[in-house]
Amino acid sequence: MALNKGLMSSNSDEWDPPRWLFDRLNERFHFTLDAAATQENALCKFYHSIETDGLQHNWDGERVFCNPPYSKIAKWVKHFSEQAVNADLIVALVPARPDTAWWNDYIRTADLIHFIRGRLRFGDSKNSAPFPSALAFWLGLERICRRPTCP
């Protein structure tokens, strides 16, 4: 099987998620922010790019979709875990690598993890990714389930 060498390289982190996948998720969750995008591939009206760096922002009250740069995956998944306290929702498309420290430290804090069957095709690639993928969902449950304080 021939692999798309671009998917294995770190020459670019700008890999568009499959549009059909985003559309199905967005139909249900109505995202307000694409946390890692470019002007050309942003999936939401509001987005963060390399210049505005989504890692430097709070996502309070946002419904976030993110296909993070895989070269900085540990930083991104840590940020997801931290931002989940105040975001309304975070859905992250990540490589399924449950043997890694970043997965065990941060992805496992998600409220739901969905492993995607098969291999995705990113962007306009004709080849499938050489790794499996997963969706991690932080649903704001910690915030929603906080007990009100008694007077």
By CATH, the topology is Rossmann fold
Report the structural category: alpha/beta
**Helical region count?**
5
Structural Rg:
16 Å
What labels describe this entry?
151 residues, single chain, alpha/beta, Rossmann fold
Structural overview:
With 151 residues, this protein is α/β, with parallel strands linked by helices. It has one domain (13-144): 3-Layer(aba) Sandwich (Rossmann fold), CATH 3.40.50.150. Helices cover 23% and strands 17% of the residues. The chain has helices at 5-8, 19-29, 73-83, 101-105, 141-144; strands at 33-34, 46-47, 63-66, 89-95, 112-115, 133-138. The chain has a six-stranded mixed sheet, covered by helices on one side. It is globular and about 55 Å long. The relative contact order is 0.18.
Provide a brief overview of the structure.
The chain has helices spanning 5-8, 19-29, 73-83, 101-105, 141-144, and strands at residues 33-34, 46-47, 63-66, 89-95, 112-115, 133-138.
Structural topology:
Layout: H1 5-8, H2 19-29, E1 33-34, E2 46-47, E3 63-66, H3 73-83, E4 89-95, H4 101-105, E5 112-115, E6 133-138, H5 141-144
Parallel strand pairs: 1-2, 1-3, 3-4
Antiparallel strand pairs: 4-6, 5-6
